[in-house]
């Protein structure tokens, strides 16, 4: 597992957490840390069933989402708030070139023709049966 320098002071810690919600937290741990979600959404996709805890700010805008995909623990955390940054100053809206400068081992790809995703290390997920 990769640990990033300066992670303790960042609101976004790549491959670890966003706004205090850590990957692998249980539903109860997320609720203990952030309170009752403003909205809980359930669905399913090619990987199986998922649940999403949505937390909003005071004016009702989404600030962070915790997703549980085929697992009782957090498998995905996302934010749309520019004020949440990494120790390197990367935030929502940073150009991809800034990401590559901050994280030289970064990989990026477009999925489904619309979703641009960047990651470091090995990207993996649940194994599909069949």
What do these coordinates show?
It is a single chain. The protein has 130 residues and is mostly beta strands. 12% of the residues lie in helices and 33% in strands. The protein is built from 2 helices and 9 strands. The strands form 3 sheets. It has a 4-stranded antiparallel sheet with strand order 4-5-6-7, covered by helices on one side. A 3-stranded antiparallel sheet has the order 1-2-3. A two-stranded antiparallel ribbon has the order 8-9.
Mean pLDDT: 85
User: Unreliable stretches, pLDDT < 50, 5 or more residues?
Assistant: 1-9, 126-130
Strand order of the largest sheet: 4-5-6-7
What general outline do the C-alpha atoms trace?
Answer: globular
H/E element sequence:
EEEHEEEEHEE
What is the radius of gyration? 15 Å
What summary fits the major beta sheet? 4 strands, antiparallel
Distance between the termini: 29 Å
Strand content: 25-35%
**Helical content, roughly?**
10-25%
């Amino acid at each position: 597992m990769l640990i990033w320098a300066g992670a303790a002071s960042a609101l976004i810690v790549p491959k670890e957490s966003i706004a205090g919600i850590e990957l692998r937290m249980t539903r109860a741990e997320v609720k203990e840390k952030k309170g009752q979600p403003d909205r809980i959404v359930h669905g399913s996709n090619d990987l199986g069933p998922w649940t999403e805890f949505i937390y909003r700010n005071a004016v009702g805008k989404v600030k962070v989402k915790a997703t549980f995909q085929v697992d009782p623990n957090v498998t995905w955390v996302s934010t749309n708030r520019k004020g949440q940054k990494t120790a390197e100053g990367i935030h929502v809206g940073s150009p991809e070139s800034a990401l590559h400068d901050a994280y030289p081992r970064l990989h990026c790809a477009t999925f489904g023709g619309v979703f641009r995703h960047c990651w470091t290390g090995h990207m993996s997920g649940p194994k599909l049966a069949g």
